[in-house]
Amino acid sequence: MQNQLQAIIVSKQTSRWHRFDSQQAINEAAVQRILAAAQEAISARGRFSIVLAGGGTPKSVYGLLRNAQADWSKWHVYHNDDRCLPVDHVDRNSLMAREVWLNHVAIPANQVHDIPAELGPVEGAKAYAATVAGIDTFDLVLLGLGEDGHTASLFPGHVWDDSLDAFPVFNAPKPPSERISLSARRLSDTREVMFLVTGAGKQEAVDNWRNGVAIPATVIAPATGVDVYTFGVELK
Ligand SMILES: O=C1O[C@H](COP(=O)(O)O)[C@@H](O)[C@H](O)[C@H]1O
After folding, report:
1. CA–CA separation, 114 and 129 (whole Å)
2. How far is the CA of 153 from the centre of ligand 1 (A)?
3. CATH code at 221?
4. Which of 29, 86, 125, 152 is deepest in the core (most CB within 10 A)?
5. Which residues form the Glucosamine/galactosamine-6-phosphate isomerase domain (predicted)?
6. 117 CB less than 6 Å from ligand 1?
7. Is residue 40 situated within a structural domain?
8. Quick one: pLDDT at residue 134?
């Protein structure tokens, strides 16, 4: 397995870049780090809170977690965004995570917190803001990167209200146009962030990010910095 590490600072964000040379290598490294973060959190605080990325990139990592050994009873699962579609729609991030992983492990049902995106952007965002309001600093936030540089449902050219924990999204350039997202501030309130970035389609966004262009991914700025796990993009 190859993991070449470089660190760069973009505005307030410190990013550590990890390059893997196969899909298997990035998946295994991500799973190892997630399980280690869970163990550390459970030993220190008796619980582990993780915020999941949606989209296609994390699916194979979630598939491996399904067969992992972990103290699932201590896991508390949240989502960084979801699409305003019926609960059983194939494009719901919550459905993907449940089908591939969460329905197959022993996390208590009341510790899996889907975004109620089926209520629509305004009501769903209000409800999810209330869900995360009482939650302390997350332990681990997983994030993806869109080809246009978006992360969660923070899209280029959009303005979002960082005073809110979760906010409604309209006119998203990637369908569906209506979504709900945690805010950049809430996503940054975490002990650790891991971005998963795979495929040549993400090259331009990665180049922009590393060259200091202010794409949405650069606004995620926890005190501990962010780790970006990559496969299939060049780190120029
Ligand atoms: O729409 C979304 O896109 C991003 C990236 O998705 P990917 O399919 O390119 O991995 C994802 O992180 C976000 O959660 C999702 O809603």
Report:
1. 12
2. 8
3. 3.40.50.1360
4. 152
5. 22-225
6. no
7. yes
8. 87
What's the structural domain count of the chain?
1
Of the candidates 195, 200, 205, 196, the residue with the CA atom closest to the CA atom of residue 174: 205
As for the ipTM of the complex, it is 0.98
Closest Cα to atom 14 of ligand 1: 54
> pLDDT (tens digit, 0 to 9) for every residue of the chain, 236 residues total?
456 666 665 668 899 999 999 999 999 999 999 999 999 999 999 999 999 999 999 999 999 999 999 999 999 999 999 999 999 999 999 999 999 999 999 999 999 999 999 999 999 999 999 999 989 999 999 999 999 999 999 999 998 889 999 999 999 999 999 999 999 999 999 999 999 999 999 999 999 999 999 999 999 999 999 999 999 999 99
Element (H, E) at 174: none
Q: Is the CB of 55 under 6 A from ligand 1?
A: yes
Pairing of strands 179-182, 166-169: antiparallel
Please report the pLDDT score of residue 8 as a whole number: 64
Other Cβ atoms within 10 Å of 211 Cβ, number? 11
Q: Is the CB of 59 under 6 A from ligand 1?
A: no
Q: What residue's CA is closest to ligand 1, atom 3?
A: 55
Extract the tokens encoding 184.
């950049």
Residue 94: inside a domain = yes
Output b/e per residue, 4-42; b: 16+ Cβ within 10 A. Answer: eeeebebeebbbebbbbeeeebbbebbbebbbebbeebb
Residue 11 lies in a domain: no
Beta carbon of 53 within 6 Å of any ligand 1 atom: yes
